[in-house]
Amino acid sequence: MRILLVEDYPPLKDNITECLVEEGYAVDATSSGEEGLWYAANHNYDVIILDIMLPEISGLEILQRIRAKGDNVPLILISARDEITDRIEGLETGADDYLVKPFALEELVARVRAQIRRKHGQKRSVLSVGDLALDTASKTVTRAGREIPLTRMEYRLLECLAFKKDEVVSRDYIWQHVYDDYEGGSSNTVDVYIGYLRKKLKVDGLEDPILTKRGFGYLLSSAAA
Fold first, then answer.
1. Which residues, 6+ apart, have CB-to-CB distance to 153 below 8 Å?
2. How far is it, in rounded angstroms, from Cα 24 to Cα 19?
3. Which domains can be identified in the chain, with CATH numbers?
């Protein structure tokens, strides 16, 4: 899952970025409102975290422009402005959540996870795909009750497929939502990691749950899992 963070206070930006990366997210971070607007306009994100008070262009204006384009990306506003009227303005402008500074990083991560679940119509932190279970909070995976150890990149890829279970996921979508940089997700790289996942998921002779749709991408099948 890829997150855009727009925060102009360097220590906080760095702390949030480090925390989100440790949680397994790919993160684009900037302190510039103009750059943040460019990122939002040119890339697909699972969540945007947006400070209100920014240089060049305010967070509320960025939010207005994002929504004016019909982009419904989940967006969390963060701000030191804690008046009820400020929160109402942010939510009425189109934000999905509003978090007042200072806040615990653990709470921000929990809100990010909640927004991603809501985006994909999931109410629980555990994603079930047949006999596969992914705990998005602990980042653990089990199949038929047996825990399967995955690397961070393998887990990211599997989670990406699990949120869109029984749907074909294109390589381009995987590149944008899984890899840290936009040049790192070559077709060959995706194929290699799909191969790693397949070997680990086919425990005890169970059927391969990842189907290849040639020319289109991959599908995590709940019928096979």
1. 178, 193
2. 9
3. 2-119 (3.40.50.2300), 126-220 (1.10.10.10)
Chain centroid offset of residue 6 CA: 15
The C-alpha atoms of residue 103 and residue 225 are separated, in whole angstroms, by 39
- Entry pTM: 0.86
Residues 6+ apart with CB under 8 A from 119: 46, 47, 74
**What pLDDT tens digit does each residue of the chain (225 aa) get?**
899 999 999 999 999 999 999 998 999 999 999 999 999 999 989 999 999 999 889 999 999 999 999 999 999 999 998 899 999 999 999 999 999 999 999 999 999 999 999 998 888 899 999 999 999 989 999 998 899 999 998 999 999 999 999 999 998 889 888 887 655 555 678 888 899 999 999 887 888 999 999 888 999 998 765
C-beta atoms surrounding 64 within 10 Å: 13
